[in-house]
Amino acid sequence: MNAGTPPAPDPRVTVVIITRDRCSELLRTLRTLSRLPERPAVIVTDNDSRDGTAEAVARHFPDVRLLTPGQNLGAVGRNLAVRQVRTPYVAFCDDDTWWDPGALRIAADRLDAHERLAAVTARIIVEPGGEDDPVVAELRDSPLTGPSWLPGPAIGSFLAAATVMRTEAFREAGGFHPGIWLGGEEELMATDLMRSGWWLAYVPEMVIHHAASPVRDSTDRRVLGLRNTLWFTWLRRPAGSALRRTLYLLATVPRDRASLRAFAHAGRGLPWVLRQRSPVPPAIERRLAALERAQRQGTARRYVG
What average pLDDT does range 187-197 have in this prediction? Predict the structure, then answer.
């Protein structure tokens, strides 16, 4: 390639976005994606927006594949989109995040090089300040060890708004669990991927930007996050570990109405959770226990708001 010649588009990655009632933010993200040198295909699942999102996407971005299931599917909207993906890799993105130029090419190169690497997660920069998201330290200092070929620290979960995944691995894991719906939905998939012999890594050379949407209910997000943490714990952790984690959460979360709602909702879902319960083997449980210890000392996961 001659100096000054723009890089060729990269056909290896499709970007998948779920959105609901954030039209202006989604349009900003789509504009940014359209300028990326990789020129990725983009699929948007509109989770039953009422603010004209679908119409605006169809009007301004006719090349974007738009899915309108007619209901709010939460994270399962990504499953719907991935069914349409024909590239080996899928980059997840939220309507308030956008990929840095070159990041998708880096991700595809890393995934090309390592066939048992399921996903790579990017460094997340918070806008407009430009500082690292608090979760970056947790990813960078992951307590897990992995094979020497990993392109960065081994991690035990990922953030769907900042991760490029092997399409085959996503489908093998069954996508995001419909029972979890939304809020920490990545933890269950990551654990099932690890159990199947896949690895996940943090790759700081990849960068994604996040300008947190003002159109969000932080209390509802906390309720869903805590409920889903409890459900994941009882779906996959051995009984002793699940009980200890539950008691720890009971002792440490804020004693308020939101926490009460989360525990009540988790309790109502316990019958289906116990029916689907499948504890991980000891080797994977050791990884989960190490991650839990690290999370207790970090600042990224706090059930407040």
Answer: 98
Distance CA 301, CA 253 (A): 11
Decide if 29 contacts 98 (C-beta within 8 A): yes
Asked if 156 contacts 291 with a C-beta cutoff of 8 angstroms, the reply is yes
Q: Is 194 exposed, middle or buried (0-12, 13-18, 19+ CB in 10 A)?
A: buried
Residues 6+ apart with CB under 8 A from 102: 37, 38
The residue count for the chain:
305
User: Are residues 263 and 214 in contact, defined by beta-carbon separation less than 8 angstroms?
Assistant: no
Question: In degrees rounded to 5, what are phi and psi of residue 176?
Answer: -80, 140
The DSSP secondary-structure symbol of 154 reads B
**Per-residue DSSP letter, 10:** -
The model's pTM: 0.94
Strand partners, 252: none
The 10s digit of each residue's pLDDT in 259-293 is 999 999 999 999 999 999 999 999 999 999 999 99
Cα distance between the two ends of the chain: 50
Q: Which residues lie across from 19 on neighbouring strands?
A: 46
Collapsed DSSP state (helix, strand, coil) of residue 77: helix
Alpha-carbon Rg of the chain, whole angstroms? 19
Q: Report the DSSP beta bridge partners of residue 91.
A: 15, 164
Report the amino acid identity of residue 92: F
Q: How many CB atoms lie within 10 A of CB 61?
A: 18
